[in-house]
Amino acid sequence: MSETLLKDDILRHLTYTLGKDPDHAQTYDWRMALSFAVRDRIVESWFAATRKTYDADAKRVYYLSMEFLIGRLLEDGIINLRLLDEAREAFETLGLDFQTVVEDEPDAALGNGGLGRLAACFLESLSTLGVPAYGYGIRYEHGLFKQGIVGGRQVETPETWLSQQHAWEFERPEVRLPIGFGGKVKVTGERAVWTPAEAVDAEGFDTPIVGWQGKWANTLRLWSAKAQEPFDLNRFNEGAYAAAAEPEALARTISRVLYPDDSTEAGKELRLKQEYFFTAASLRDILRRYDSTHNDITQLPKRVAIQLNDTHPAIAGPELVRLLHDERGMTFDDAVETARACLSYTNHTLLPEALESWGEGLFGRLLPRHLTLVDRIDAAHAKANPTRKVAARGDGQVKMGELSFIMAHKVNGVSALHTGLMKETVFEELHRLHLERIVNQTNGVTPRRWLLSCNPRLSGLITESIGDAWVDDLEQLKGLESHIEDAAWLDAYHAAKQDNKAELSNWMGQTQGFAADPHMMFDVQIKRMHEYKRQHLNILETIALWQEIRDNPNAGWTPRLKLFAGKAAPSYYFAKDIIRLINDVAEIVNADPVTSPYLKVAFIPNYNVSLAEKLIPAADLSEQISTAGKEASGTGNMKFALNGAPTIGTLDGANVEIREHVGEENFFLFGMTAQEVMDRRSVADHAAQAIAADPRLARAVEAVRKGTFAPGDTDRHAGIAYNIAGPDYFLVASDFSDYWRVQREVDSAFADEKGWARMAALNTARSGWFSSDRTIKGYVSDIWGASSLL
Ligand SMILES: *Cc1c(COP(=O)(O)O)cnc(C)c1O
């Protein structure tokens, strides 16, 4: 580790890297100088890790993901290198505010939500555990759009994280791989030569990801698309200036934007190009690295494990077969076996609209050789498994879920419930043919970011109580249970939460127009806006509560702040309507003097990792209310439990396991089970029945319908009311009464301050299992066959 003082390094970088005189340096300059000083220290362990991996000829894990929702990296690096005190001190002596500098960093939002954040937590855990690994993805010029709220409505503007230099990446101009599309295939015997019609270069950019205590660092390599001939000088000389720059503009389109959809299929040619672009570049890079120290390609699976994060990189199956068979001369059957021994696939959703498939016309036009290989993979699979008819290509489509399954030696779900449902639904046929293939790996979150760094008050108390070994051995939080019966300790636990709430309240006062009273219950639902996540169930209950408080203001209501945040995909109109309803309800409810002491509503714009880090430590109640069977796992639920916010939730995804771990008396369960949901859907008028049976629900839906929250524009919310009263596919109406009932139990429980603190503390103490370190150990032993080099 570096021997120089951090402060000296900051000043050195400010002067010689940034070229700034300290007297004239801006926040940006200081932030960059600090980042470079921290980065220098990470680079040292990064090189050491690479050397160790080569020396041991160790198996490497390659995590292919279309999304990495990494957020800010500066504080992460500082925390993991244990430089926080030194960095704070340095800035104090320089007369600068450390927090301002840290918050100057753009939030890298190269992902939509849970799937991308999982990939980021996994990289950090892989480094903490010292497992040699690379993350591979796309260096999007524009990450997920920025969300503003104007007149209650979502407005999207482009995200521009690269408008300033990205402090953490190293450009690798020497790593430039040509990636082709379209063109012709010349078959000779069973092999073929593919001559693409167009090609772009994939250029690598490396970001080191450091683990806890800086013992190990792995690489996140993101691909940027570049034109092979960047500039047409002849056209320029002819005066066609725009046309001259066209090749570069066209090529760069591939890595220009992250698709802003979450759980919906984007049937776009550009999307398929993006998928092939980063997958093909990654595979070529993997083989190149393997070739540099090995000469027997048949031994590839001994040194290479490739994880497909969802089906987005599913083309890896046929592409690896193509590389091994067409280009390296392996027999087709050996190529398939070798590829399968390397590949494994994580399924993230059972929602039919989110299962990727491509029309064979488009697929064949872009990837002509791969379409033939998909057929041959299907034929070989059918021959080996004649009892059932199931294939990757059918009905004019190439189905990426089936393709991933057939080409993977292991397929995993992300919670016990989800894995079970996978076996019974989407992959029922394939599961029966391959009973050993599906395994479960329940998701997790990294405790470095999601407790140590984001919640210094609570993590300080924990370390004072049980030492700091919990940071990379989260099950040690169990040791807190013996402290919980100590009244003074519980007071300290409660005080940490209260201080977090006061801090959030201050921030809201400065940025959101009102500071909520920190004595209210902070009831928080933050996640992508989606019908299955049922923000509309929450806002409907809010409306019913408002009506009830107005009827009966002196009934001893437990004061609540309902906090919402989340982005809706730009073309997902219903989700956007829900955002507008929440904002409209907030406007009416917050202005009501009768209910104001007991109920406030806030929608905080632009939900991202940094906002999550701010809100979660201050939450009292975690809303995890998806229709059972629809949320594969969730990871937000884990962050809340860890930070001492008990859950109100359905038996869905990892909620089931959270409840088992924290104890059912410390979890507010409501609603139908996944099985009951399926049964209920077959009742023709389920919503009407539910509304007829609950006058409270009827009144709330009626208020939405008649425009109570849209004075002067009374039809504005009618669509939502008709949906809830009519098709209601996500069963908001049917789960409402039970949700209301349990929310009132939450009210009483919260009114007992000591009892609530105890419940919150037990959630923290018993959430150790939800560390992504535990998840990664599961993948390492059950799927990858890799090992730790620490
Ligand atoms: C954790 C996280 C998610 C996932 O939240 P869920 O509630 O599991 O959907 C999404 N976005 C961000 C920014 C996160 O930090």
From TrEMBL:
GO terms for biological process: glycogen catabolic process. Its main location: cytoplasm. It is an enzyme of class 2 (transferase). PROSITE patterns: PHOSPHORYLASE. The modification N6-(pyridoxal phosphate)lysine is found at K639. GO terms for molecular function: glycogen phosphorylase activity; pyridoxal phosphate binding. It comes from the Bacteria. The keyword Cytoplasm applies. Pfam families: Phosphorylase. Keywords: Allosteric enzyme, Carbohydrate metabolism, Cytoplasm, Glycosyltransferase, Pyridoxal phosphate, Transferase. InterPro entries: Glycg_phsphrylas, Glyco_trans_35, Pyridoxal_P_attach_site. It is found in: Cytoplasm. One of its GO terms (cellular component) is cytoplasm. Its EC number is 2.4.1.1. Its cofactor is pyridoxal 5'-phosphate. Belongs to the glycogen phosphorylase family. This is Alpha-1,4 glucan phosphorylase. It comes from Litoreibacter ponti.
